[in-house]
Specification:
Blueprint: H1 3-24, E1 27-29, E2 35-40, E3 53-55, E4 59-61, E5 64-67, E6 69-70, E7 76-81, E8 88-93, E9 105-106, E10 114-118, E11 125-129, E12 146-154, E13 156-162, E14 168-174, E15 180-185, E16 193-198, E17 205-213, E18 220-229, H2 235-254
Antiparallel strand pairs: 1-16, 2-18, 3-10, 4-5, 5-12, 6-9, 7-8, 10-11, 11-18, 12-17, 13-16, 13-18, 14-15, 14-17
Helix pairs in contact: 1-2
């Protein structure tokens, strides 16, 4: 095979593989800076205690509501070792059960719902989940689940994770009928920005649940952005381009060699 044909074949194969991968994964990781839409920085949270304040009930902030979980999800407990000591932290676990149609939010029990914390830095306040009370009476701030329900469907979302210590994290995104779009594994969690978009661009993300087992401090989220993303090649585009390259390669094979 001459170099030109080999190059075309390799490029077509790569595009086919890329298109297939994107078609399989409903949600893909993207750059946080590529998102556009509504930014929720949580600065409106009522936080006066330096140790953070409990937030009871459903928390409404603009076009999004926050609670512990969705109706239909089962609230479980995951335990993970606490670094440096002989102890365990207990975390909310939303692995089991599935949200019911309508994606109705539920608040956690009193003292075990959500919390607000002011870091006192440039990013200020953040939202956290309050976990289950463990046997040693340790701090449960940051160890709980956070679920959010958007007023309208979104095609992308992103957020900043704070206080992470390398533990496991899970993000489940749902449609309005309660069906799961995808659960993404985020661990080992970093103090960084995470962003995700629907591979096909559909604006059907009605809500999400974030739960984790990041021991010691747990995590908080800040700078939640939801909306869309700059144009990216869709699976169909990649497949069409690959098909074109394959057709070109076939045409070159049919052409007689020039003397």
């Amino acid at each position: 095979m001459n170099p030109t044909k080999k190059t075309i074949s390799l490029l077509a194969a790569g595009l086919l593989a890329q298109g297939a991968a994107l078609a399989i994964a409903p949600v893909q990781g993207v750059a946080y800076a590529s998102l556009s839409g509504t930014l929720q920085d949580f600065e409106s949270l009522a936080v006066s205690d330096p140790a953070g304040n409990l937030l009871e009930g459903i928390v409404s902030l603009g076009g999004v509501q926050f609670g512990e979980r969705f109706d239909g999800q089962e609230l479980g407990v995951t335990k993970a070792p606490r670094p440096g000591v002989i102890a365990q932290d207990w975390f909310d676990d939303l692995t089991y059960g599935a949200p019911l149609a309508g994606l109705s939010l539920l608040a956690g029990a009193a003292g075990s719902n959500l919390g607000g914390y002011d870091y006192g830095d440039a990013n200020g306040k953040a939202l956290t989940g309050i976990g289950p009370q463990n046997s040693d009476g340790g701090d449960v701030f940051g160890l709980g689940a956070i679920s959010a329900r958007f007023a309208v469907g979104q095609s992308a979302l992103g957020f900043q994770v704070r206080d992470a210590d390398g533990g496991a994290g899970f993000l489940s995104v749902y449609r309005l009928d309660g069906s799961l779009i995808q659960t993404l594994t985020l661990g080992p969690l970093q103090n960084s920005f995470y962003a995700f978009a629907r591979s096909d661009g559909m604006a059907d993300i009605a809500g999400f649940s974030l739960y984790q087992s990041d021991s010691y401090y747990g995590i908080a989220i800040d700078n939640l952005i939801y909306g869309g993303i700059s144009a990216v090649p869709e699976p169909g585009s990649s497949l069409l381009l690959a098909a074109g390259l394959i057709a070109l390669l076939g045409a070159r094979r049919r052409c007689p060699a020039q003397a």
